[in-house]
Amino acid sequence: MHPHMPIPTLAMVSPHLAFYDNFLTEVECSLLIWLAKDKMQHSRVMDNTSGQYVASTGRTSSGMSFKIGENELIEHIEHRLSMATGYPIENGEGLQVLRYEVGQEYKPHYDYFNPKGIGIDKQLANNRVCTVLMYLNTPDDGGETTFPDAKLVVLPKQGNAVRFTYDTPTQDTLTLHGSAAVRQGVKWVATKWIRRGAYR
Fold first, then answer.
1. Into how many domains does the chain fold?
2. Angle, vertex CA 100, rays to CA 94 and CA 102, nearest 5
3. Domain containing 158 — which CATH number?
4. Which pLDDT does position 21 carry in this prediction?
5. pTM of whole model > 0.70?
6. How far apart are CA 92 and CA 114, in angstroms?
7. 196: closest CA among 85, 110, 49?
8. Which residues, other chains included, contact 19 with Cβ-Cβ below 8 Å and sequence gap of 6+?
9. What domain range includes position 183?
């Protein structure tokens, strides 16, 4: 386990991104996959009109979420995420593990909730402000994280992580991002979404 503050290997101002090498150990990556693999369900997205989670053709992965502090491994990772982002653990949604198989993708999207949404007042009152993506394996081909507005592509490599923040829920943050289709093999990634205030 990492006892020290995670140090970015590279940081950007616009978009506000930071990259980490070896944010997770190989053992932590393997354990997360092992704990998640039998609980995977088709990924959903929140509908801006109804506020309900629904299936989407733009998001074809499968996934599951851990509860906050569900076990010692999750506690260690949440503590590290809190140090890396500067937000307290209670602001985070449950750590989510996603699996992308060949051809599966997540088309470019924003992680914050759109202020023009009708059925999501409760979400807007405590909107998302930060995302951390942690790569649990290195796919054989494809599965890049793309930031189209920033003309940036992040290659998925086991243990590495990318953090991006969006203090305002606007396109100016340049945080439009997606997961390119996996072309060969499988991609496992863990996602942490962080809210402005305590989530629970």
1. 1
2. 175
3. 2.60.120.620
4. 98
5. yes
6. 19
7. 85
8. 8, 9, 10, 11, 154, 160, 161, 162, 163
9. 10-193
Share of the chain above pLDDT 70, in %: 86
Query: Is residue 177 one of the residues assigned to a domain?
Result: yes
pLDDT digits (tens, 9 = 90+) for 82-124: 999 999 999 999 999 999 999 999 899 999 988 776 565 667 7
List, in order, residues 6 or more apart from 106 with CB less than 8 Å away: 43, 58, 59, 60, 61, 100, 178, 179
The type of residue at 26 is E
- 199 domain residue, yes or no: no
Three-class secondary structure of residue 185 per DSSP: coil
Query: Do the domain assignments include residue 173?
Result: yes
Q: How far is CA 121 from CA 118, 125, 128, in A?
A: 7, 6, 13
**Nearest C-alpha neighbor of 78 from the set 192, 175, 195, 199:** 192
